[in-house]
Amino acid sequence: MGNIRPTFIKRTAIELLKMYPDQFSDDFEHNKEALNRLAEFSTVPLRNRVAGYVTRYRMVLANKV
Question: CB within 8 A of 47, min separation 6: which ones?
């Protein structure tokens, strides 16, 4: 079974990926640092969840292409 993430995490991650496609990679740690530079999150766990979804989304896209 996979993780079910709230819609706001998915929406935020996809919007940031569309605005800054060259700033993110398949590396979670790199994406956390990129999110620190590009967006402001109220809590660290929220930032980490968005970074995790960005990482997973990029990996899925890379496998489909």
Answer: 32, 35, 36, 39, 41
Task: Say how far apart CA 64 and CA 32 lie, in whole Å.
Answer: 24
Q: Could you tell me the pTM of the whole model?
A: 0.88
Sign (positive/negative) of CA torsion 8, 17, 46, 26?
A: positive
Q: Where do the domains of the chain lie, and which CATH numbers do they carry? A: 7-64 (1.10.60.20)
The answer to whether 37 and 19 have CB atoms below 8 angstroms apart is no
6-62 pLDDT per residue, tens: 999 999 999 999 999 999 999 999 999 999 999 999 999 999 999 999 999 999 988
